[in-house]
Amino acid sequence: MTTTSAHRPPDVLPQARDLQQPSLSRTALAGLAVVVLLVTSGLFAVTDLAGRAGFVVVATLLYVAAQTAVSRVVEGGRRSVDRLVTTAVIASFLIALAPLISVLLYTAEQGLTRFDWDFFYRSLRSIGARDPGGGANHAIVGTLQQVGLATLMSVPLGLLVAIYIVEYGRGRLAATIRFFVDVMTGIPSIVAGLFVLSFWILGLGFGYSGFAAALALTVLMLPVIVRSAEEMLKLVPNDLREASLALGVPRWRTILSIVLPTALPGVVTGIMLAVARVMGETAPVLLTAFGTASIVRSPFEGPQSSLPLFIYQEAASPQGTAISRAWTAALTLILVIMVLNLLARLVTRRSTLKK
Amino acid sequence: MAKRIESVGLSAYYGGFRAIEDVSVVIEPKTITALIGPSGCGKSTFLRTLNRLHEVVPGARVTGQLLLDDEDIYGPGVDATGVRRTIGMVFQRPNPFPTMSIYDNVAAGLRLNGVKRKGVLDDAVERSLQGANLWKEVKDRLTKPGAGLSGGQQQRLCIARAIAVEPQVLLMDEPCSALDPISTLAIEDLMTELKDRFTIVIVTHNMQQAARVSDRTGFFTIEATGEPGRLVEIDDTQKIFSNPGEKRTEDYITGRFG
Ligand SMILES: Nc1ncnc2c1ncn2[C@@H]1O[C@H](COP(=O)(O)OP(=O)(O)OP(=O)(O)O)[C@@H](O)[C@H]1O
Ligand SMILES: [Mg+2]
Question: Do residue B148 and residue A355 have CB atoms under 8 angstroms apart?
Answer without folding.
Answer: yes
